[in-house]
Amino acid sequence: MAINNTTSDFAFMEFPMAFSRQDGFPLDKTSVYGSLEAAQTYAQTSPLAYVGQVLSVVVDGVSTTYQIKNTAGELEALGTGDLEGDVDAIVDDRIATDGEVAEMISEIFGSEDPEA
């Protein structure tokens, strides 16, 4: 069960110094998991989990980043857009053709042809 604490009515501490890592581990021990199941269990059961919290899951040396999406503790993958596919086809689908551009200009500024 994740907490939805958007009221900012929680205690905080100002810390005027930077942290300096001493080893290769996360500062927050609840931010990196070795399986998706472990991250889901944390998000759904820990009283420390909160909506919007970012978690990483590392499987076979590859990391995927998630956020806790809601108070039920559902995880949502972040930054998983596939830009390695056919990029030219994706771009071509989003660029207007010359005919479409001419039609838009005509609709906005009117046609120079009085017959049209």
Structural overview:
There is one protein chain. The chain has a four-stranded mixed sheet with strand order 1-2-3-4, covered by helices on one side. It is of the alpha+beta class and 116 residues long. The protein has helices spanning 36-45, 87-94, 98-109, and strands spanning 32-33, 54-59, 62-68, 75-77. The chain is built from three helices and four strands; from the N terminus they run βαβββαα.
| Largest sheet report | 4 strands, mixed
Query: What order do the SSEs take from the amino end to the carboxyl end, as H and E?
Result: EHEEEHH
Structure class: alpha+beta
How many E-type strands?
Answer: 4
Regions with pLDDT < 50 over 5+ consecutive residues?
A: none
Side-by-side strand order of the widest sheet: 1-2-3-4
Portion of residues within helices: 25-40%
Give the CA-CA distance, first to last residue: 63 Å
- Global mean pLDDT: 84
Percentage of residues in strands: 15-25%
Helix count, DSSP H or I runs of 4 or more residues: 3
Quick one: overall form?
Answer: elongated
Radius of gyration: 24 Å
Quick rundown:
By secondary structure, the protein is α+β, with helices and mostly antiparallel strands. Helix content is 26%, strand content 16%.
Topology:
Layout: E1 32-33, H1 36-45, E2 54-59, E3 62-68, E4 75-77, H2 87-94, H3 98-109
Parallel strand pairs: 1-2
Antiparallel strand pairs: 2-3, 3-4
Question: How would you describe this structure in keywords?
Answer:
four-stranded mixed beta sheet, alpha+beta
